[in-house]
């Protein structure tokens, strides 16, 4: 496996450090270093919101204070991830250059302040960004203690939809559209502007979708979302280019789970390593399983973006301060939730933040070091214990990564388009649907990858594409080739409905030949029209969305389940068709969770993607496998009580080398890390 962070190829443990808040208290730095060593911290992130300290006046740069801190950390064995400071602009800049501030959809320019308040298109902003990044790179980009560039902070996190609607952005949007469509005739056709007589006759007439203007053209809405993501990606590219002027360090950006405004699959190729900020809502439900499933899906997405280990750049060791109710992690959950990230492919556990701020909006956000009591807190002791465990497992874990043989299609452009439509119901809930199809794999202890419609499907035994409404150009041909070569593909209701410009496909379903079905109409039924399907000897309730479809005569399509009631009683609800060397399934309706469990358990077995622990895991317990010269299993108990799991083989415990076999009792919130037998024994 290629080493990305060559200066320190080990698991990282640490987090965001904001010493500029304590610049006038040098004793705090020395105390922090002592506590970091006690907590087994080996890496911190610096400079994330330091622009006002690095450039207190325009063109006046101060890097000495930051170098001294990096020096002291490095002298004590603590490495630095160095950030560019564009996440928050200094007041001298926003006061002098109005255009750097974002404009809302109402046409009102934002006042100075807040985070992520900069226009990604503004020439002035880009010029100032390049200057500070060049200087940062020149002064500190080759410091022996710096191991990675942290580009900006949570791109797009402006508390809205990441967009700016200023004149610069409007003109850039028009230029982007010209490049894409070439002519207005092409654009008008793609957006179907003859509807309501909204045909554009000049490029200058085009404006971003806003509440007091045009927002009913779905093609316009979709292209605006594409543009916003593209424009931020382009800004990110320029940031990366700027810091690499004097440095050859790898680069990352800290992402934000399934963050709707940005297509992270598009960002991934320009990054050396993926990182993200994880803040699950633990203890917000009767148990932790729902939250654990979503957290695992988020980690899985990050690993999938480059099919490589990622970094957990931020998490909280205790609480956050921005939820309606901010509940402390109960004892043991911090270690489990952190190791869950490692189990899914992370090579780090890092926190926001190291020391609590004394003032401002995040002064009560969780941190390793509280306002009082130093190391004498439960949180600090749990962080220290985890840091020690990370050191113990680093050599075994670092060279490994998850290598799934099953994948779930999750596509940002499909998400944008699907949730903008009017009908068949207002909330199409694409992400919730994807997570519902992810959960059975999590419960079986089977790792999956997320892929988008542009991804290569070869190499996967099983690919499922829930609620895949929009088909990009070439996607149907890709699926056809995948199934023909021996793959197993699952499609669902309301798939292949529109093309990539969000125009309804008028011909047959793009995959009719592969699926062997002909779709007719979609019913969104309420609770007064219940229905069910019969599969595998059991009856299962259907959900709201139920598609009426028919088997194509002579296609050889097998009906595995039919509707039990209503005017479509007896029509197919689940079909299977052999195509080439593979199989294609079509699920025509939403179903209850138990059906998805039974269905995917059957497919996992038939396609040899079932994990060693499948069928042996109790409720709330899952397993993840990282592969390498020595394969590792992470057995995780998300129950607040003990759980007994059956081991399918004999293993060694990574922590101490002890032999483990048979039944094992997991403590509440315990993560057991086991190594598989090697060919010559244990």
Polypeptide structure, described:
The strands form six sheets. The chain has a seven-stranded mixed β-sheet with strand order 11-10-12-13-19-18-17, with helices on both faces. The protein has a six-stranded parallel β-sheet with strand order 5-4-3-2-1-9. It has 17 helices and 27 strands. The longest helix has 26 residues, at 218-243. α11 runs parallel beside α12 (378-397) and α14 (430-444) crosses α17. By secondary structure, the chain is α/β, with parallel strands linked by helices. The two termini are 24 Å apart.
* Tally of alpha and pi helices: 17
Q: Oligomer, anyone?
A: single chain
Average pLDDT figure: 96
Strand % is: 15-25%
- Overall shape: globular
Instruction: Report the helical percentage.
Output: 25-40%
**Number of β-strand runs:** 27
Structural class comes to alpha/beta
Please compute the radius of gyration using only Cα atoms.
26 Å
Distance between the termini: 24 Å
What about the largest sheet?
7 strands, mixed
Strand order of the largest sheet: 11-10-12-13-19-18-17
Q: Low-confidence parts, pLDDT < 50 over ≥5 residues?
A: none
């Amino acid at each position: 496996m290629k080493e990305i962070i060559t200066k320190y190829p080990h698991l990282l443990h640490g987090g965001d450090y904001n010493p500029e808040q304590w610049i006038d208290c040098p004793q705090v730095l020395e105390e922090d270093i002592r506590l970091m060593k006690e907590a087994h911290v080996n890496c911190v992130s610096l400079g994330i919101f330091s622009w006002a300290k690095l450039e207190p006046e325009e063109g006046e740069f101060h890097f000495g204070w930051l170098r001294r801190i990096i020096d002291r950390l490095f002298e004590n064995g603590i490495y630095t991830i160095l950030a560019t400071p564009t996440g928050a602009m200094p007041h001298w800049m926003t006061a002098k250059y109005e255009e750097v501030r974002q404009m809302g959809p109402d046409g009102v320019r934002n006042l100075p302040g807040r985070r992520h308040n900069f226009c990604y298109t503004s020439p002035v902003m880009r010029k100032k960004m390049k200057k500070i990044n060049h200087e940062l790179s020149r002064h500190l980009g080759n410091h022996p203690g710096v191991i990675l560039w942290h580009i900006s902070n949570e791109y797009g996190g402006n508390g809205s939809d990441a967009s700016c609607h200023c004149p610069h952005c409007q003109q850039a949007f028009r230029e982007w559209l010209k490049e894409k469509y070439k002519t207005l005739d092409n654009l008008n056709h793609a957006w179907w502007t003859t509807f309501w007589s909204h045909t554009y006759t000049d490029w200058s007439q085009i404006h971003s979708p806003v509440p007091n203007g045009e927002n009913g053209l779905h093609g316009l809405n979709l292209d605006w979302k594409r543009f916003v993501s593209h424009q931020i990606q382009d800004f990110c590219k320029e940031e990366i280019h700027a810091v690499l002027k004097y440095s050859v360090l790898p680069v990352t950006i800290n992402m934000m789970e399934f963050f709707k405004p940005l297509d992270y699959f598009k960002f991934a190729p320009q990054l050396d390593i993926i990182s993200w900020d994880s803040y699950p809502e633990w203890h917000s439900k009767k148990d932790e399983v729902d939250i654990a499933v979503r957290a695992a899906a988020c980690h899985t997405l990050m690993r999938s973006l480059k099919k490589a280990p990622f970094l957990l750049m931020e998490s909280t060791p205790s609480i956050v301060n921005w939820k309606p109710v901010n509940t402390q992690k109960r004892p043991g959950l911090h270690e489990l939730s952190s190791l869950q990230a490692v189990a899914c492919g992370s090579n780090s556990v890092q926190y926001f933040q190291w020391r609590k701020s004394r003032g401002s909006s995040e002064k009560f956000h969780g941190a390793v070091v509280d306002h009082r009591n130093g190391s004498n807190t439960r949180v600090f002791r749990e962080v220290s214990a985890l840091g020690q465990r990370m050191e113990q497992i680093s050599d075994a874990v670092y060279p490994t990564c998850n290598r799934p043989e099953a994948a779930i299609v999750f596509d940002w452009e499909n998400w944008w388009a699907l949730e903008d439509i009017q009908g068949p119901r207002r909330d199409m809930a694409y992400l919730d649907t994807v997570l519902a199809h992810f959960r059975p794999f999590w419960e079986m202890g089977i790792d999956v990858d997320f892929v988008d419609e542009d991804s290569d499907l070869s190499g996967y035994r099983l690919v499922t594409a829930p609620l895949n409404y929009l088909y990009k150009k070439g996607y149907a041909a890709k699926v056809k080739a995948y199934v023909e070569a021996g793959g197993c593909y699952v499609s669902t209701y309301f798939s292949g409905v529109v093309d990539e410009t969000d125009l309804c496909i008028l011909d047959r379903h793009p995959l009719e030949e592969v699926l062997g079905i002909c779709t007719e109409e979609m019913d969104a039924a309420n609770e007064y029209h219940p229905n069910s399907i019969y599969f595998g000897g059991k009856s299962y309730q259907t959900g709201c969305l139920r598609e009426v479809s028919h088997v194509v005569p002579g296609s050889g399509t097998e009906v595995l389940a039919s509707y039990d009631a209503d005017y479509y009683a007896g029509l197919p609800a689940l079909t299977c068709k052999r195509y080439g060397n593979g199989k294609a399934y079509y699920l025509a309706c939403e179903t209850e969770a138990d059906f998805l469990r039974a269905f995917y358990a059957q497919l996992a077995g038939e396609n040899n993607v079932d994990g060693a622990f499948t069928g042996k895991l109790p409720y709330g317990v899952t397993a993840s496998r990282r592969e390498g010269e020595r394969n590792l299993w992470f057995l995780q108990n998300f129950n607040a009580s003990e759980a007994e799991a059956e081991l399918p083989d004999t293993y060694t415990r990574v922590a101490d080398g002890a032999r483990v076999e048979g039944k094992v009792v997991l403590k509440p919130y315990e993560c057991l890390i086991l190594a598989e037998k090697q060919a010559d024994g244990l």
